[in-house]
Design brief:
The protein contains 20 helices and three strands. By secondary structure, it is mainly α. The chain has a three-stranded mixed beta sheet with strand order 1-3-2. The longest helix has 33 residues.
Length: 419
Amino acid sequence: MARVSIALESLQALQTSSISPLAKTADENRNRLYEALWGWKLCDGCRYTGTCTIVTCPKNRVPSLQRYFEHYKELVCSYGHDLEDRKDAVVRSHDGIFDLIRILKEKPDITRGLLAKHVFGSPTSIGIESEQEHVIGLAVKALTMVYSTHWLHQNAEHDNGDLVSPNWQKDIPFNAFLEGLFPMVDHPGFGEDSSASFWEMKNKITGNKLVRKGRLTFAPTEDLSNHLKLNRKTGVIEIFHHTAFLKENLRITRSLKGATGIDESLRLGALPRQLALEALDSIQKIIFPLSDPSAVILLQRLVAEKGFDEDCLRFEASAIREAHETNTRYVYFGARLADIYDELENPTPRGLVSRWAKRKGAGHANIATIVAVVIALIFGLVTLGLGGFQAWISWQQWKHPIEGSPRKSLSFAIQRLRD
């Protein structure tokens, strides 16, 4: 019951975000957020005159991160909209959130329990402990774009109907929690970028083919751990659409040599490079290949109608990629790509006829036969009805001949011969 009460309070906070002190001060803390996350250093022009004077200044990337920052403000709004009247609030400003982000970066192996104790001290009540969990979850979400607490996740709009959210347990290290969310599986087919099966499968699961042939749809997700999840019942594929966030992560790790582990990446404020590359390329090279005009049109429609980040339509290479990073192996999302491919090859029955055929054991191969039999039966009944109607008309014409009809003319001729 306590969880339900907390979730309801958070939902009310979302609905009354206009009076949230944290929400009111979000815009003026935007650059400090990026500094805490990625170590942004603005040029002297930005700091002293408010006018950017250097092309390479990170402030030039602020517009592309607008969608990500809007999500951050939504998260902030979900916490304590009445902070001005509370003396026991866990945080009163964005500084508390930024401090949590910095500690997560410095100590990626810290447990949630130790993190809460280190920052907030011992909780005085269950309510305060829940608030601490919420604020920590907010910092984790800003840093990694994954949910780590049920409280935040229950307030998130979840288009795919998946209400099961991960929860970072008190005695689990932060890096272990993330490794559990993103297990590495060398899936045959998508695990090797040079294999024939990879190119064949890749070319079959473009967005337009999934829509036309598979009758699948796409929904945006704010949780990276849900990227490419397929709900077979509804036919919805979740897409993590914050590509600007992924690109910022790739900029940070671009200068590193060799594969980077999760600890090394987190200390820089980034996700593992392979994970970010897979997420970005699965969007811009596989599902919505930006080299295909029809895929661009589909993606533009999703931006306009479903709220996808407009940055999905911007392809970048030199600033975020190494020269050898042209083709991507999929060890994090390979299994999900294969799941989508399997759905396209063996569609899940969703229509009435399809479900009936599956229950009766007819399978997908017999659906066309069933449809043909139904159509033939309908045409047979229509033909039979037309035949009966024509016979009735003929009988009526014989019984009640009209003036000038052949039957009446013949009767008149016979009568004249008799006379």
